[in-house]
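anyone seen this seq b4? input:
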Amino acid sequence: MDILEAANRHSMLDVGDVVLVAVSGGPDSVAMLHALHIVSSKLGISLHIAHLNHGIRGEESNSDQVFVCELAQQYGIPISTARVDVPTLRIESGLGEEETARIERYKYLQDTATMLSADKIAIGHNADDRAESVLLNIIRGCGIDGLASIKPINGKIIRPLIDTSRADIDRYITENSLDYRLDKTNLDTTYARNRVRHELITLLERDYNPQIRPALVRLAEIAAYQMDYMRYAAQNEEHNVILGASLDTELLTNLPKALQSQIIRNKISEVKKDLVDVSYDHIESVIEGLKSGADFTVNLPTGEFFVSRTRNVLRVWRRDPPEPAKEYEIVLRVPGETAIADSELTLRCELVRNPKPAKLSHDEALLDAATITGKLVARSARVGDRIQPFGMTGTKKLQDIFVDKKIPRRDRARAAVICDDEKILWVAGVVSSELGKVTAKTVQAIHIVAAPHQST
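predicted toks r here
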């Protein structure tokens, strides 16, 4: 059985190629490695295995790495391995575990390919993966580019199994008595992709179309052809509407809407370096703004990039990054006001006799004065900061709380941490501590209100 049909159909491999083969230890990558190993001499290519241990599954991840190393030794193929701590990186980035793992995996493969001067990077995506991606992208709301889904060739990256079904790969493994590792997270339906794979596609096959997988793959192929043409047409028109680093709005609005959209996307990608989180709504807002004839500005995700029209010029621009927040520590005036310029806040403190526990806004804190050790200060957040959140018995990393509450990075850097000599009592506007709470026995409390700092 030939499972490398796509490699031939798309002319993925050339004589003399050094091919970096991404091997996780799962059935797809094991089958791909075996098939490439068999034809490597005939095709005149040399192989090098790459394996990244994501550290997601503890000892199972370590066992995967050992398995792939043994496979490399068995085939006599050189191997490069590395380990990353995805669970920790996920918290730091604020992204999901699956997305963090994907980013780290591709970064490692690209870096390793550069180090080895590899010509190609072979990845084991199959036809079923492509069908699932099409469906997942439709659910999320995509354009033609999203329908094109996983591409057979993308720069150095090649996908030799992209035309081969998962069922055919399973048969190949059985016929060749290949051992492989199973990743239990692929069965975890808390991941959207796994729900599509194990639930939605199964439902569609059973109740609507037994051939839904090949139908979705055909849709991806058709979309890819149309997307290629759209890019070609947009490139031919772009030189007519470009004004230096900007676009001529009058000429742009005379084009068909599909070309307007593609040219705007191209310009955003040129400035932003990607189209991550740039949605249909963003592009539609720009096009509707152009139709209005008035000046406008559309904010792109993260608030760092913008698309603006001024008279007859449309430009994509980046806001100058703010100055990095400085580390600070300021003793609070109790009672009194303390300006915290680096956090753009003014903290007003007053003493309250015989306070009663009450529900406060997120900009207020009421601290039992008897629980405070030493001086009360406001400072910047530090690596490793922990707090015992109100109502909890244990502590939690402040970084985790920022991620859970989706606090933007720029705001995390400017958060005002209120603490005494021993512990954190409040992070203004974010979280209060159990350790400073007011009870029925409290004699005196400090009431703190955080207000925007008014510069003079």
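The radius of gyration is 28 Å. The longest helix spans residues 212-241. kinda curious what u guys think
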